[in-house]
Design goal:
By secondary structure, this protein is mainly α. The protein has helices at about 30-50, 55-75, 85-90, 95-105, 115-135, 160-170, 175-190, 195-200, 230-245, 265-280, 290-305, 310-315, 320-325; strands at about 205-210, 215-220, 225-230. It folds into two domains: about 40-135, no CATH class; about 160-335, hpI Integrase, Chain A (Orthogonal Bundle). Helix content is about 45%, strand content about 5%. The longest helix has 23 residues, at about 30-50.
Length: about 350
């Protein structure tokens, strides 16, 4: 008997479902808050990197102060001492122009500030905005293309004549540690053109010889280290001073009680070393600062015929224009071309 074929079983087709992705809804206040926090974090990080371009704490403080001066003048309410990114973005070139004209177009007696201060502050502001733009935080730079005041060709610090320098050094008392410390400190200012903070940081082991030449290793602005040749009598005085008083550590120690291992501070050096020395020479410390010693040294070297490139290198300037700003005697009449003109008014 033949079996009958089994009837065909119809295929079962699985049902298909279309799942639609939910349409994006409006951003919530929470999302907005998160985005603002992220922007602020990036902004603060970029600002920190901008200030971190310098390794000098004093320079970082100056740049921060310059930025605060601008934003406070705009009346921006600062959170934790910093403007928000939205406030920074809202600044226009008209705001920057008004700031420039308010402080650097007016006379000093009318609230104006020095051109050198204006050049620096607006340069800091321009660099700050350029850094934010490069980081993708800004679409436009409000400082771009805006004319800025230029720093004067000559600095404002009063120099000292060779006679005044010699009077200051000759009037220094001698004998005890304090007197010898102060006299040697002045020697480093006048002969090595050190900034006052650089002199304060000197250690006994920073002085010595290199291939028979007396030298000093100096930590300069920006945490750089340079080696300077010491003038012969200054090197000899340094060796005798350190040996006589059995010094180690800082070359110019603070002699205040309870601080034997610390150096004299720049403020202490101005009050306790520079001001008395200037008064003894019959000069007014309100008119000449420790930086006047650097000005005096650079000017005397250039007047004496030293090559500009050598003076620039010894002073640690990156550009010769900076060195020439120190040169107080370059406009003297006997060096000016007008002195030789064959004209007569009588």
């Amino acid at each position: 008997m033949t079996d009958a074929p089994s009837p065909a079983v119809p295929a079962v087709v699985a049902p298909t479902f279309t799942v639609k992705a939910p349409s994006p809804g409006p951003a919530t206040a929470h999302d907005d808050a998160l985005a603002r926090l992220r922007d602020r974090a990036v902004f603060l990080d970029t600002r920190a990197r901008f200030l971190g371009r310098s390794t000098s704490p004093a320079t970082v403080r100056t740049y921060g102060s310059d930025l605060r001066h601008f934003f406070v003048w705009l009346g921006i309410q600062q959170l934790d001492g910093e403007p928000s990114l939205d406030e920074v973005r809202a600044v226009t070139w008209r705001d920057v122009a008004r700031y420039r004209d308010r402080f650097f177009g007016a006379k000093p007696g009318e609230g104006g500030l020095a051109l050198a201060t204006g050049a620096r502050r607006l340069s800091v502001l321009a660099t700050f905005y350029r850094t934010l733009r490069d980081a993708g935080l800004l679409a436009d730079d409000p400082t771009r293309g805006l004319a800025r005041p230029r720093a004067p060709e000559e600095g404002r610090t009063r120099g000292l004549s060779p006679d005044e320098v010699n009077r200051i050094l000759a009037a220094c008392p001698r004998g005890p540690l304090r007197a010898e410390r102060d006299r040697l400190f002045l020697g480093f200012l006048f002969f090595e053109w050190l900034r006052i903070a650089e002199a304060c940081r000197l250690r006994v082991e920073d002085t010595g010889e290199d291939q028979g030449i007396p030298v000093a290793r100096v930590r300069t602005k920006g945490a750089r280290e340079r080696t300077l040749v010491l003038r012969t009598e200054l090197a000899r005085a340094t060796v005798e001073y350190a040996r006589r008083f059995e010094l180690s550590g800082f070359l110019f120690p603070s002699l205040a009680r309870g601080r034997p291992e610390r150096p004299i501070t720049p403020d202490g050096a101005r009050r306790l070393i520079w001001a008395p020395a200037v008064r003894r020479a019959g000069l007014d410390p309100a008119l000449v600062s420790p930086h006047s010693a650097r000005v005096a040294g650079i000017t005397a070297a250039l007047v004496g015929g030293a090559a500009l490139v050598d003076v620039q290198d010894f002073a640690g300037h990156s550009r010769p224009e900076t060195t020439l700003r120190y040169h107080r005697a370059r406009r003297r009449l006997d060096r000016a071309p007008v002195a030789g003109l064959p004209f007569r008014m009588e």
